[in-house]
Amino acid sequence: MNAVTYVIYAFLTINMVFNLLGSFSLHRFPDVYTRLHGATKCTTFGTIFAVLAVVVHAAYQLHITGDPKYLQMALHSVVALVALLLTNPTGAHAIAKAAHLSGYKPAKAVIDAYEEKLRGGAE
Amino acid sequence: MIAPEFFYAAVIVMIGAFMALLRVFFGPSVPDRVVGVDTLNTLIVAGMVLLGAAYDRTIYIDIAIVYALLSYVGTLAIARYLQGGLE
């Protein structure tokens, strides 16, 4: 148990807590927009820390053993993280726009700015 | 098994994926199910990266990259279908 192990444990704990919060928020929010908000933000943040833990682990193994397999593992984890960070918010935006256009209105909403924009122009 | 802490983290992430799957099964409307599938895809990518570190195989992380891009295409296709065409 050295300092690198504690760093990996801290990153993995943040990952588990935020991923569980993201999937738990699917069952605690009233409508589709708040569920989308909670689930997308929490799972993206948790996955960032999962990839950080893998990168720290791979860099430490590369420092110990000198095997280039671990350099490949770290670089490919970063590529997976970049793909997820680019695709996750745009996918959530597409789902929210499609849900609003197909007729599912926000529950208990006072102001619906997108509805006003659709009806009355962009001013 | 090389690194058990990554394996247990992947197990916890898969418990979260199961809770997202419950939303897919019992969702009252169609966009709720789509949100459940989107969350499930993100959690599967995270679990795949963690399993690649746990079993010391880099090919699992390559599978995670391809799965992230393909699930994005699937989500966009379902959203386009849901809003009724390209307009």
UniProtKB/TrEMBL annotation, chain A:
TM annotation in the entry: 6-26, 38-58, 70-87
InterPro entries the record matches: PhaG_MnhG_YufB (IPR005133)
A single MF term (Gene Ontology): sodium:proton antiporter activity
Keywords: Membrane, Transmembrane, Transmembrane helix
The keyword Nucleotidyltransferase is assigned to this record: no
Superkingdom per UniProt: Archaea
Protein name: Cation:proton antiporter
Organism whose genome encodes this protein: Thermococcus siculi
From TrEMBL, chain B:
Membrane topology qualifier: Multi-pass membrane protein
Subcellular location as annotated: Cell membrane
Gene source species: Thermococcus siculi
One of the record's GO molecular function terms: sodium:proton antiporter activity
PANTHER family for the chain: NA(+)/H(+) ANTIPORTER SUBUNIT F1, NA(+)_H(+) ANTIPORTER SUBUNIT F
Protein name listed in UniProt: Cation:proton antiporter
Keywords for the protein's UniProt record, in alphabetical order: Cell membrane, Membrane, Transmembrane, Transmembrane helix, Transport
Bilayer-crossing regions: 6-26, 33-53, 59-82
GO cellular component: plasma membrane
